[in-house]
Amino acid sequence: MDCMPTKTLSEPLQDATQATNPVPAGPTRVGFVSLGCPKNLVDSEVMMGLLQQAGAQLVSGAEDADVIVVNTCSFIASAQQESVNTILEMAKHKTAGRARKLVVAGCLVERFRNDIRQNIPEVDAVVGTGELEAILAAAGVAPAPVVESPFRILQSRAEGDARAAQGRFSRETWNGAIADLPNYLYDEATPRVLATPGHTAYIKIAEGCDHPCTFCIIPQLRGQFRSRRFESVIAEAERLAQLGVREITLIGQDTTCTPSRPMTRFALTSTYPCSMRRRAF
Ligand code: SF4
Question: CB of 14 closer than 6 A to ligand 1?
């Protein structure tokens, strides 16, 4: 990884489920830095919601946090460099500040899992894009009871399965990439803490991408296309409206590809390559 700093490994880094560094008594204070696209911001909001539901206290300043989470981007080289720079900046709060744990989440983890482990020893745990619920173990916070959604996620579609068979999603050459592609997608029952202004919010209706754009690694970073059921999106929109949200933006890598009922009458007019046609959704 060109942008990864070369540092000597001084202590072993743990998987999210193994992080055990002690944190002070009382609610664990967690601070977030969210980089990249609105999809990543929603991932941060979900992780914050899971943490808050489990009893953690969210703080806005890194200097006040026991645990700092950097949710990273890895789409292009400059985004990777910004992610690494931010991780190193936040690491200073651990080596000379209050922070006891530094967690790296997001796309940079999917692409450079082992490089992060080997080259940034200040990082205590990593959480990939398909492992959002592992943020609780990574932060040392006990999980809250799981609330089941009545609307199951639509996990994949035939086009994606066919492309998978052709190797579209292969990550064999990525050092340390786990075998399973990310397949997580939150639903209307998942807690979220909105990070946008009070009148507006994103709803992620789908995740992943099945398209073959040769320049793009998003499918390897975020997995095959899967989507939420129409009813799940409506349920979340109604809940957000009750909270005072007046503007909702539907997001996903491919917002017009929804196997459920006609989501497209709500969705943005876009088709791939998405990153060239509109904001990096
Ligand atoms: S449609 Fe967008 S996310 Fe999918 S491969 Fe093409 S550019 Fe990447």
Answer: no
* Residue numbers of the domain that contains 217: 158-280
Residue 273 Cβ < 6 Å to ligand 1? yes
Per-residue pLDDT of the chain (281 residues; tens, 9 = 90+): 444 433 322 233 344 434 444 546 689 999 999 999 999 999 999 999 999 999 999 999 999 999 999 999 999 999 999 999 999 999 999 999 999 999 999 999 999 999 999 999 999 999 999 999 999 999 999 888 888 889 889 988 999 999 999 999 999 999 899 989 999 999 999 999 999 999 999 999 999 999 999 999 999 999 999 999 999 999 999 999 999 999 999 999 998 886 665 554 444 434 344 433 333 33
Give the phi and the psi of residue 247 in degrees, each rounded to 5.
-135, 125
| 67-72/101-106 β-pairing | parallel
Q: Which amino acid would we find at residue 25?
A: A
Cβ–ligand 1 distance for 43 under 6 Å, the answer no
**Same domain? 192 vs 272:** yes
13 domain-assigned: no
DSSP-derived 3-state class of residue 46: helix
CATH number at residue 101: 3.40.50.12160
Q: Kindly state if the Cβ of 210 falls inside 6 Å of ligand 1.
A: no
| Distance between Cα 275 and ligand 1 center (Å) | 7
Predicted model pTM:
0.85
CB 78 within 8 A of CB 3: no
- For residue 217, what are its two tokens? 């690694």
Q: Take atom 6 of ligand 1 and give the residue whose Cα is closest.
A: 273
Integer-rounded Cα Rg, in Å, for the chain is 18
Distance 257 CA to ligand 1 centre (A): 12
